[in-house]
Design goal:
single chain, 35 helices, mainly alpha, 70% helix, two-stranded antiparallel ribbon, globular, 719 residues, 1% strand
Amino acid sequence: DALQAAAPDALQALLELAEFMERDVDALPIDIRQLADLATRCRAYAKALHYKELEFATPELARDRHAAAEQLIAINRKLAQPEAALGVLHATRRRTARRRRTRHVNPNSDQVEDDDEALDQTPPSSSVVNESWLGKLGSYDEALQRYRRRLDTDPADGEAVLGAVKCLDALGAWREACDLLVAHWQPLKQAAKENINRTRSSTAALDTLAAEAGMRGEGQARRPSYPTPPPTPLINSIKTPVPRLLMKAANVGARAAWALGRWSEMGDFVRAMEDQDAGKPFYRAVLALRPSGVDGCDVRRSPVDALRLVDEARKLLHPAFAALVGESYKRAYGTTVTVQQLAELEEIAEVRKLEREVRAEVRRGGDAVRAQSSMRTKRRDLASTWRRRLAGCADDVATWQRVLNVRALVFDYRDDPDGWLRYASLCRNAGNAALTESVLTRQLGFDPHSECSDETYDQRRLRYAYAKHCWRAGRESDALLRAEGLAEALAKEDDDDSRKLRARCLLRVGDWKLAQQDATPRQQKDAADAFRAAASLDGSSYKAWHAWALANYRAVQRATRRRTDAAALSRPEVRAQLVAAARGFVRALALGTRRRAASAQQDLLNLLNLWFRFGRQPDVEAQLVPRDEEGGAPLDAWLGVLPQLIARVGAGDSSPRSALYQVLARLGARHPQALVYPLALQLKSPRADRAAAARAIIDAGPRRVAARLVEQALLVSEE
């Protein structure tokens, strides 16, 4: 009881002491299950994982392996180790299968040979994977189906209600989640009250037994070491514990109602939360800053009250935050996001104050134009600050969802389209199709059945994002039709933004046509045409030039696979594809950035393949090194394939007119230290033509800018 009531800082010190004693002296006489629970409470998840793994591996402790496995999965998820969580699931499945197989082989035996399995008290008929495991592993659809089957069997199953609501919240089905929780809210509260009465009765009975047994000392009561239930939240304003289930349901319900703007129901959920939970003043601050309108919520709109509630939430958050920061920044990141939300709620409160001042100025008949101009400036500055702040957030769906939900109190999609579209992209890349659909249609207001005529640029960006969502969700035909229709509609526009968006649409059209199984030659040609059009519309797009070059490169490979190079190049279309591939790769290398370093390196290797195979073609060589010695692939890019270039010195045409000679000479003039030693070794080649070519390159490049360096390198090579 004393450990459970201790402050997080004291528990953190105790856990560090236990870790030191276990490592250097001897383990403290404390049950590792209790240490695991305390570490979880302090959010010291690495320590909790250590103790829980010991419990799971010790047969005398892990009487219920399913419960221990579920806790291991939850801790690994909090530590961002999904592979480890999945490994726990596979290990539990194998253990259960082995146990059942042993019982099947020797059903009449009273003793199982494997003592480890004999101590596993999990019933053999129980499901290996329950619903909560699937939810923690991210299989929300499957977990939701199981929870619904449980609710069909027992509508009063509180755990099934909470599990289903959590899955619906993760899938973005906030309306269904809120409706389900509202339908079961009163039964949950009634069950909580019954639990309160049972707890009070049990406590009174224990006190009576202790008194009768003479266990009361002078001035202090002692009780037998019965298991004590963990602290539980409060219902409304009654200072008595209620089931943890109700508190979790209230948190999930408050989030769902907030996303839907159902403020009255959100207020009901918030009232059921624990007073010592930092989420309660946080959600009350959100209610105090909600948009104006008739909503039936009894929490008054007041920026002053919101600021007071934000301070209260910070005070409640401080102990846990201090303990997490003591572990690492990564462990404290989730709480850091909450601190950022509180700071932004304060900024929203300032906006609400300014809005009131503007309305008061208008009612007084003052300078309304000046007041409104001040308001617009405030909102514009705040939006700019928030965009920079959002750029530093981790690319995580949950983080962006929390941050954008706060900002939606004052800004919508029109104020920050880039942020909301990035959030939708994160949901799509995470494989959560249901959440992506919900974000695009419910939060951002996109109508999938609307026409793309007479739309603004931001609305068309939303349409493009929905087409990408359709492709990821498995609706390939629908996605292709939407992208082609949007590209056709954008062809009527002549501004830069519309041209770039049309280029992105054409890129998707080309990629999706090539991604279809057994793409026909006609589809391959249509894809190449789409890539060429995208490159012409947006000449600064690396993706467009890369896709166009790669499509032509593969076409050349298909043509030369069926016949000799000379026969293939005799055809004008193959020759045009060869030149286009070389030009596209060169242009892509010029546009490649550090973010696309891996793709740019592959482009360079493909370009080398074309160069060494077809480099004697004048039109191909012209793409590699233009006559004015400007443009072409950036010189620094060739440093990554310098060994391949040096190996070609002296092979084939080594005249000063060759592209290889010019590239190495220019590269040696810019980076003499990179070429002087490899070329000095080539001077010792037994082949006279290779040595002569290396000497000519040294004289044309490194010697012109670093003659002393060249002389020193030659001296070292002679010694």
